[in-house]
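Ticket #4471: structure output looks truncated?

Reporter: J.K.
Steps to reproduce: submitted the chain below (200 residues) through the standard prediction queue, then opened the result file.
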Amino acid sequence: MVSQNCNVLFDEVIKYYHVYNEIERIAVNPYPARSFQNILYKKCWIDTAQWHMEDEVRHPDIDPVTALRWKRLIDQSNQDRTDIVERIDDYFLNQYQHITPNANARYNTESPAWAIDRLSILALKIYHMQEETLRTDISADQLLACKSKLSVLQQQRVDLCTAIDELLEDIEKGEKRMRVYRQMKMYNDPMLNPVLYSNK
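Returned output as attached by the reporter:
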């Protein structure tokens, strides 16, 4: 199943990242260029690095210059994330281009790639909540709360995997329509962000 393969790969990326735990480290992607696995690996690496950027920018004693630097890096990371999710959707569009949807085929609220995006983020939540359950410096109540949250996250992953695999199956059978709407983010575009184009 596609979702299970994604989970295995995402867990691999997150585990490898934490061997070094360096936000700006360049990923060594072990999968062939232009392969689906290569794209997924890049996607999860972006998510993992950004997770830690988001931690850093919330440091209570951060100075404004450092905070702005992290903010800029997060903005670029968000753009990279969007771009690579759209590449994942391009993969699925190519996979299902030969399928003619049924006359009564329905639309889904999100594309396969954006569902897989949520699966990558969920893998990160599970990894880091698991870490919280291993802490020895917290109260019994906090430890119990973390274990409860971890259980919820694990169930969310089961449910999301089911939904992703069912969506792909429905597209293959022509019961759902494969349509992608590009995000068209405006804030990073010097032609569309008025703060940027008015200062040219």
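Triage note (M.O.): checked the attachment and the full token line is present. DSSP finds six helices and no strands in the chain.
Status: closed, working as intended.
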